[in-house]
Amino acid sequence: MGKVLPPFIIWQGKTHRGSYYPEGGLIQEVTFAVSESGYMDDKSGFEYMQQHFEPYTRCNPPAPRCLIVDGHSSHVAWQVVKYALDHDIHMICLPSKSTHLLQPLDVGCFGILQTTYERNLSAWLRKNPLSVLSKPSFLEILEKTRTEVFTTDCVQGAWRKARC
Question: What distance in Å separates the CA atoms of residue 117 and residue 130, rounded to the nearest whole number?
Fold first, then answer.
């Protein structure tokens, strides 16, 4: 048994604004960060560990947790590793260029997430011709996609296939 963590979204920019959110509310429990590139960097990697992974995986009573990462610098920066050590989070770093083989959710769930997101985005674009995809619309499409894809059957199916 397990759970799907809520999204950790990195916006490109220097600030984070409340106007990015859909009027109906946020995706439940989403964590936002910003970086100049829009990609994870050492700062947002630490924010992920401290503000997202640790709180969402904390157990009562306390228990060790495991986080599987690739070798990206933001995942293995000293500040991130030290935080993990201090909070009983065991990090396993996979060899580079091997995550598609060693992480069953990459193909079994995240591949399906990508395909479903593209389908939902295409449907949104057909309904909103000549529109620019705004951050609120992106969040609505993402939430719809996550709800469709991240089911117990999907996650357990990916795990079962990986063990065969």
Answer: 19
DSSP letter for each residue of 106-117: IIIIIIHHHHHH
Nearest-angstrom CA–CA distance, 113 and 107: 9
Convert the pLDDT of each residue in 131-145 to its tens digit: 999 888 898 999 999
Give dist(CA 15, CA 164) in Å, integer.
Answer: 46
Structural domain boundaries, residue 129: 103-164
Q: Which of 144, 113, 3, 147 is nearest to 136 (CA)?
A: 144
Structural domain contains residue 69: no
User: For residue range 3-18, what is the model confidence (pLDDT) as tens digits?
Assistant: 788 999 999 999 887 7
- Number of domains observed in the structure of the chain: 1
**Shortest CA distance to 66 belongs to which of 45, 91, 41?**
91
In this structure, is residue 72 part of a structural domain? Answer: no
Residue 87 falls inside a structural domain:
no
- SS percent in the chain: helix, strand, coil, step 5: 55, 10, 35
